[in-house]
Amino acid sequence: MPPLRWQACLFITLNAVILSMLLFDAPIGASEAPAPVKHLGEMLTGFGDSAWLIYTSILLFFQGRAGYKLVKTARSKAQALYVSWIGAYLFTTVVLSGLLANLLKRAIGRARPDHFHDYGMFSFTPFSGHAAFESFPSGHSTTVGAFFAAFALLFPRYRVAFIACAIWLGMTRVMVGAHYPSDVIAGLAFGAWFSLLTAIVFARCGLLFKLAPDGWPLAKRLFSDTEKPGAL
After folding, report:
1. Which of 18, 38, 46, 135 could pair with 112 as two cysteines, CB 3.0-4.6 Å apart?
2. Tens digits of per-residue pLDDT, 104-117?
3. Which of 66, 228, 222 is nearest to 154 (CA)?
């Protein structure tokens, strides 16, 4: 692991999750969001569904590969190859982070907020096989965190907007009553870190990213070497 100060980030994340559990989870579980807030959450929460993100990443990959074979100029081939590797990167980080998050939530077995009055917020039933006990971490938030962290790494100029989108879409799970705030924070952090680690792997393979001296993955310039598109 490169020196990315991951210990400090892990410490901050754990404290944010614990404080959220102690301060916010109980009020959220004991009450219901106002109707306008819940309606807003229902309109937005579908954007965190992994299905359309997976389909989009697959489309990008195959469209880029097809374009690479069809176009003639080196510049166009480089662009097509770049698009295909973006699709591969998004597919890898969204799918694998989602699978791990689903495994974690089943293993932890935390009861969802709509069962707060029956079980409380510290009720854990590992591997129950019931969706009512799959609250922590939030799978939607993991997907959202992974997706927008990936774009923040690929296009750092717009990282603030991507972070804001991730927080908003993640918190829609609280608005609709599907998760506690701590579930969302854990999911966003898990997805974001998974995207970062995947970017490091891609950088070490010479794909999409390069490693800065401090170990941080930096997106390659698209046309840094148009004579060698395979180096992207």
Report:
1. 135
2. 999 999 999 988 88
3. 222
